[in-house]
Amino acid sequence: MTALTPEIKEAIEAIKVFPLATASKSGIPNVAPMGSVFLIDDETIWIGDNFMQKSLQNVLENPKAAIYVYGPGAKGCYQIKGDITVKTSGEEHAKMKAMIHEKKPNLPAKSLLIFKITDVFECMPGADAGKKLL
Which domain of life is it from (predicted)? Predict the structure, then answer.
């Protein structure tokens, strides 16, 4: 497993919307903005599915995804890749639903994508662009 550094965790906490990249089983790509993203621990990110269609279908067919971490307040730029498990019930799903409803009670919180981090890459321009960090 890959454990995030304090710098990467700070960058994740600073971002409000994350581009989530997925691909279908046949390789058709999709990227969509995700606002319900929660850093659970050094190896796990939860993504709440409020309005997913193609992204959800893709991870059900091909459980690999990537998020991009960059924006105002983030000290750094990172691409995080991982394996996805989808939950539509159970304790983790209920906890994610409560986390979303605490901020925005009107969102549906349909399913939970559990994103287990496998790799982290540098995205800042320069000599280290694309370098594997973790």
Answer: Archaea
**Rounded distance between C-alpha atoms, residue 68 and residue 30, angstroms:** 13
Question: pTM for the whole thing?
Answer: 0.93
Q: What is the mean pLDDT of each run of 10 residues along the chain (134 residues)?
A: 86 96 97 97 96 97 97 93 97 97 95 97 94 95
Three-class SS of 59-89: HHHCCEEEEEECCCCCCCCEEEEEEEEEECC
Find the distance separating the first CA and the last CA of the chain, reported in whole Å: 9
| DSSP strands (E only) in the chain | 18-23, 29-34, 37-41, 44-49, 64-69, 78-87, 111-122
CA distance 29 to 16: 23
